[in-house]
Amino acid sequence: xxxxxxxNLRALPKAGSAxxxxxxxxxxxxxEGKGLDLYMPDNxxxxxxxxxxxxxxxxxSNFPYDERRDAYVCPEGKDxxxxxxxxxxxxxxxxxxRGESCRECSVRERCTRGETRTxxxxxxxxxxxxxxxxxxxxxxxxxxxxxxxxxxTSFWRDKVEWQEAxxxxxxLDESAGRVSVDVPGAQ
Length: 187
Fold this sequence. Notes:
- Helices cover 30% and strands 24% of the residues.
- It is of the alpha+beta class.
- A five-stranded antiparallel sheet has the order 3-4-5-6-7, with no helix packed on it. Strands 8-10-9 form a three-stranded antiparallel sheet, with no helix packed on it.
- A hairpin with a 2-residue loop joins β5 and β6.
């Protein structure tokens, strides 16, 4: 989607937002590489934020990764160690960590359906985590709300400093102070 906007307009704004339908690691990577301040939720952000604290205690997002020890730490303070690595052509490997103490854990049934808890991690998940943190910020919530109210892919005029002029059509809504771009064939 971000590449398509750049092709259509022959430029990228400094900031933009898109709804969760455009959420992908490829779009996040491309936007970051181009310096675009992008606001784009993933499909699970809203559901995760609406869950009660007890419901999400054992969600993957509550298993912090300790880079120094190369291990995830579960909410009960126990380590999950690297168990497998799945190679994926042209993409970072999918790393799977597995709990070492799950069989004896008193809360295992709340954490996993299996004998041990596993956590998989795409090498690009830092982009997803950074996006979730940005969207949960005060400024992120404002921008995201505007996108959901108006729908579609939106670029705010007050944030936009075009890198170059474009003759391509874009819709400007003066009252909302934004530029909307419909991207045919965007993924």
